Amino acid sequence: xxxxxxxxxxFIILIFAYSCKDKAEIDVEPISTWEVIQQNIxxxxxxxCHTAGSSQATQSGLVxxxxxxxxxxxxKTPKNTAAASDSLKLxxxxxxxxxxxxxxxxxINAPNQEHFYEDHPEYGEIMPPGNIxxxxxxxxxxxxxIVAGAPxxxxxxxxxxxxxxxxxxxxxxxxxxxxxxxxxxxxLGPFNVKTNYERELYAYKLLGNxxxxxxxxxxxxxxxxxxxxxxxxxxxxxxxxxKDILRDIRDENGNQINSTFQSLADQIFMFGTQFRSTDYKYxxxxxxxxxxxxxxxxxTHYVNYGTEDIQGELYVNLHTVDKSQIQxxxxxxxxxxxxxxxxxxxxxxxxxxYTFNDTRSIFMLTAHAHKLMTEFRIQIKGGARDGxxxxxxxxxxxxxxxxxxxxxxLGPGEGLRGIATYNNTTSNTKRxxxxxxxxxxxxxxxxxxx
Length: 450
Description:
single chain, Jelly Rolls, 3 domains, nine-stranded mixed beta sheet
């Protein structure tokens, strides 16, 4: 009896072993992120036009069939002369910064189409053509793949992102915001923006708060044509601009107005958006304190290359909560390098390190420089993530305002490193200054201390 049981048990173990072996032998290697993009996106939405011999492929120089698509994209110069002159590649492989240097992303990023057509009309049209863009899930899947270095092999992005089938819908309406139930509303405009003109201006608006308020949500609504909106606070003891006066940065002939630039000396970044409608919520338990009697400086930029004048107008709702509901008070990050020396007729890269002596949870970052800046990087300094790139822009006029959810957690002894490159094409040495002909190197942001 024992002998029979032993044989039976051995047989079961043997069968199990062969079953496991067979299973291991028939397991299929998961397909790479690139293969998912090829099969789920390019093959279904792109190759009907971008096939060898088609007029579209000939015009664009881009074939996206599976046999050549990857090689046709990676680090190749676009056939579009404007994109090529802007030093874009069809698809760059340097990680985060490649989002801003890849023509492919410019062409498919439908949520950015208002800026795409205003800033780069010579780039053509958003792809795919027509009124059906890639889904929001497909766009985020591709974006994360580019940030990961756009590898050909390996799974680097979660395919569950593709479950989001929602589509970006352009918002062409303008509906003024209703007053917040608890909080303050700011209204600016309407003001005229003449044809074939870009109007950028500042306006200092008092909030009318007789006691300290705590802002945990910001809503914005702006008329079509806006490029960005930024809200600035001022340092203590700053000389404040006159309230409710529109301070243009240039006159109608394009000449800069120096008094406006001089009024910006003590600004501290609070919030910004490059979209016409925004509903931003601070992290849970976090709010921005605005002291009694304070105001904010609004910076708005409108672009009008149409045939008729347009009206600029905007609303901002600052939603507030009682102090008892706040666990952490948001702080403004202002890291400013004053020592700038840029020799004439050459490229210069400056590095500034900032170390914090406390724990900081950073939930927003942006950079500020003037027109000689060609690249601005922000890295983590110190700790296990030392040197990690967390922010990049190559657009001095309209740097990205990047939000972090979850926040970037930096401990004592860690900090931020700013790396800015300038190309001084003038015959004069450039230094720090308030005018657009001077230079700056500033990291703005927002954080809280847990």
